[in-house]
Amino acid sequence: MDAYINHKSNLILNALPTQEYERLYTHLEYVELPLGKILYDPEEPIRHAYFPLRGAVSVVTVLRDGGSVEAGVIGKEGVVGIPLVLGRETELNRRAVVQIQGSGLRLKATALTEEFRRGERLHDLLLSYLHAFITQISQTAACNRMHRLEERLARWLLACQDRLGSDEMQLTQEFIAEMLGVRRAGVSVAATQLQERGLIKHKRGFIQIIDREGLEAASCECYGVVRREYQRLFENRAATG
Amino acid sequence: MDAYINHKSNLILNALPTQEYERLYTHLEYVELPLGKILYDPEEPIRHAYFPLRGAVSVVTVLRDGGSVEAGVIGKEGVVGIPLVLGRETELNRRAVVQIQGSGLRLKATALTEEFRRGERLHDLLLSYLHAFITQISQTAACNRMHRLEERLARWLLACQDRLGSDEMQLTQEFIAEMLGVRRAGVSVAATQLQERGLIKHKRGFIQIIDREGLEAASCECYGVVRREYQRLFENRAATG
DNA sequence: ACCGGTCTGTACGCTTTCAGACAATATTTT
DNA sequence: AAAATATTGTCTGAAAGCGTACAGACCGGT
């Protein structure tokens, strides 16, 4: 029973009609998603799709020098492994890594594509989700170019909270820096500024959002734009940011 | 006859089996794509999908202050209007605008989605293309954060040439600046530097690539990564960069 | 209680890019 | 031919963020 409730906390699985859900059910495997776990790497075959139940997964673009920059975040509103439904088994430039520890349900690649090809509800849900995800990435592309670190950090923390549910997050500056594509020292300065404005509190490996509304005001427009697109996605069912 | 050959210069249309192509044929409408023409705007309904035959279309993220940054470029290897197949009629944050004048074939939204829903070749081709397009956007997101203007300009010019075929392009610095999300003056400096290195020549509203190999060396890795993904796309049929 | 590793705050000079402005040149219009 | 417009090259001061470094704070293990 508890497992059943868990399954339904992924919004895509939750939106499936009973018949489709039951077809998938036997193939779903519960997995823990510990911090830092890599779900797939560039050029490596993607063997499973992951439907997060709790926590968040980052999709990051990996550069030749080893540096990386986040392209998008996936939580309970989405699925990790979109290339599978697009007919690809690998990504050339991206890695999926657990950003906030949690859990999820995974599905073998073949099971996913088989159900997808039926062209029923899962097909349409995944494509709708993909649209929102593309919105997220393209907004991030502009954001990375135009907005200042403090704004981007605020945006990023808000997106995290939406996917996490809680206002407390276990995150190091080092990790955040890698996601935002900046120096760790830069995150330290920006986080301290947000704290001085009373919007967050942060300690070693830990950040808490104190004033969510204020943090939204301190973030760039990108947060709101992407949030709106995700709300459209499940607007008749449930909302996530 | 000439029209027929033209149709086939779009690589997606070209890859369709005869039967599917003929189903679409009557719905295809030839259109000129003059410089600056807007194919869709944020929040406005997308009424047609465009299959470019010549020229190139930019998809740019539009920011609240009116600024814009390119997310991706679409040429004869692709199609403009992907949201339609994802079940959306609008984009919240993007505009599609003709970057290099040319021509294309357009299809009413309903005709595209109808054929897409058949789940035959066009369905799979569009999804494969989408994968490459996402690779392009996410690489750009990292590129915008990590790479210097001169490298990014080189990358951008190369991607332009691939889609254009010719080594001469009619482009103003003002336009390029808007695509790259930088000041016009910055483009002037970077273009002059590339010219001093003997890689390009540029005059008022005009840029020519002189040393393509040198320009590739001067560009960031992002050009090669994205090019490779697009090559995978049509690898059994034709190649584009 | 101590130690080693991890995490954070802060500092320095430096690079890239910005913002804004201006003059020079090329093209189009009158 | 002259005027208006579009496009480009360059300048100055300033901001944001970089690379690097280092010391202090925190944490877990023995």
Could you explain how this protein is built, in words?
2 copies of one chain form a homodimer. The first copy, chain A, is α+β, with helices and mostly antiparallel strands. Chain A has 11 helices and 8 strands. In chain A, strands 1, 2, 3, 4 and 5 form a 5-stranded antiparallel β-sheet that branches. Chain A has a 3-stranded antiparallel β-sheet with strand order 6-8-7. In chain A, a hairpin with a 2-residue loop joins β7 (200-203) and β8. In chain A, α6 (121-146) runs antiparallel to α11 (222-233) and α8 (173-180) packs across α9 (184-196). Chain A is globular. The first copy, chain A, starts with a helix and ends in an 8-residue tail after the last helix. The interface between A and B is large, with 43 and 44 residues. Chain A binds a DNA duplex (30 and 30 nucleotides) through α9.
Summarize the structure.
Chain A is of the alpha+beta class and 241 residues long. Helices cover 47% and strands 23% of the residues of chain A. Chain A has eleven helices and eight strands.
Helices and strands in order:
2 copies of one chain form a homodimer.
Chain A lengths: L1 H6 L3 H4 L3 H8 L3 E5 L4 E3 L7 E15 L5 E7 L7 H4 L8 E15 H9 L3 H26 L2 H16 L3 E2 L3 H8 L3 H13 L3 E4 L2 E4 L2 H7 L3 H12 L8
Antiparallel strand pairs in A: 1-5, 2-5, 3-4, 3-5, 6-8, 7-8
Helix pairs in contact in A: 6-11, 7-9, 7-10, 8-9
Chain A binds a DNA duplex (30 and 30 nucleotides) through helix 9.
